[in-house]
């Protein structure tokens, strides 16, 4: 199984508690890129600009990706979310 497939499988385990659906099925994760060195980048787009679970979901996404064997770094962009800048800072701090 390729690293990207392992990451996608891990992301299918991240469930939105409001819908009981995973973030991949809900299409909350876009632009998933995996480099040969194990660095991963993706875009998280919450289901609404005011999503009350935006922080929780983004942190769960980051943790799920980091746990995959072979991943060396995770960079998450956040779009269409009123607190995107604040959330990006938190994700960067947690990635250290």
According to CATH, what is the class?
Alpha Beta
Discrete helix count: 3
Terminal Cα span: 27 Å
As a percent range, the share of helical residues equals 25-40%
The tally of beta strands, per DSSP, is 5
Derived from helix and strand composition plus strand pairing, the structural class reads alpha+beta
Low-confidence stretches: none
The CATH homologous superfamily is called Fe-S cluster assembly (FSCA)
Percent strand equals: 15-25%
The domain tally reads 1
Secondary-structure element string: HEEEEHEH
Strand order within the widest sheet?
A: 3-4-5
Q: How would you sum up the global shape?
A: globular
Average pLDDT figure: 95
The CATH topology annotation reads as: GMP Synthetase, Chain A, domain 3
Based on the coordinates given, report the CATH architecture.
2-Layer Sandwich
Largest sheet: 3 strands, mixed
Description:
The protein is of the alpha+beta class. It is 34% helix and 23% strand. It has helices at residues 3-11, 54-66, 84-94, and strands at residues 15-16, 21-22, 29-34, 39-44, 73-78. It has a three-stranded mixed sheet. Strands 1-2 form a two-stranded antiparallel sheet. It is globular. The chain starts with a helix and ends with a helix.
């Amino acid at each position: 199984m390729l690293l990207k497939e392992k990451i996608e499988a891990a992301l299918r385990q991240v469930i939105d508690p409001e819908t009981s659906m995973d973030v991949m099925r809900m299409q909350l994760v876009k632009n998933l890129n995996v480099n040969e060195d194990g660095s991963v980048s993706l875009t998280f787009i919450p289901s609404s600009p005011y999503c009350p679970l935006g922080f929780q979901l983004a942190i769960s996404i980051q943790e799920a990706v980091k746990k995959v064997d072979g991943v060396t770094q995770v960079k998450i962009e956040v779009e269409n979310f009123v607190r995107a800048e604040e959330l990006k800072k938190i994700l960067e701090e947690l990635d250290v």
